[in-house]
Amino acid sequence: MRIIGNDWDEVIGEEFDKEYYRKLRLFLDREYRSKTIFPPARDLYKALRLTSFKDTKVVIFGQDPYHEKGQACGLAFSVNRGVKIPPSLLNIYKEIHDELGIAVGDHGDLSKWAKEGVLLLNTVLTVEEHKANSHQNRGWEILTDKIIKELDKKDGPLVFLLWGRNAKNKASLLHNKKHLVLTAAHPSPLSAHNGFFGCGHFKKTNDYLIANNTDPIDWTV
Description:
The chain is 33% helix and 11% strand. A four-stranded parallel beta sheet has the order 3-2-5-6. With 221 residues, the protein is α/β, with parallel strands linked by helices. The model has no long low-confidence stretch (mean pLDDT 96). The two termini are 33 Å apart. It contains eight helices and six strands; from the N terminus they run ααβαβααββαβαβα.
């Protein structure tokens, strides 16, 4: 079944025929018809479409999409141009500036990162308006855990950035010693001062990629 449109279809295509995924799709069909759900259905797999399996060099985990109107765009932490930059993303930009001297972005569209090989993956891909975590435990976690496990099998180099408790829990799925796994507090204003600011993750990521003969990420947006 061709759902993504690139090599992800070969890597995770069998999942789309499994019972849990069929139940998930039925649930989503009802939700999209009767409620306001984010992101728009056309953007459900935007992260995978913009960052192929082969081209993935860095993985940044989010939890579930932004749940206010106009924010969610299918990429973790990202919003479309013209939408106010969310506080967590602004803190990410501030950390990049402090580490690398890159100017703080004036928009929140992270598509450029995605096209450079940064997979911006939420672990739950949909949410109901105004209701954070409303689509947890509906099947998305099975699919995104499969994605993580398949990435872990890659020869590398690959960097996993795990920010906050929910992302850190995914470390149990990562066993490949060739990869670099970095953890820190979540960039939310509630926790950024508890270990996200000063984490050095963006410089460490590029240092690792360069040391493994791979082009670093240009963290400008």
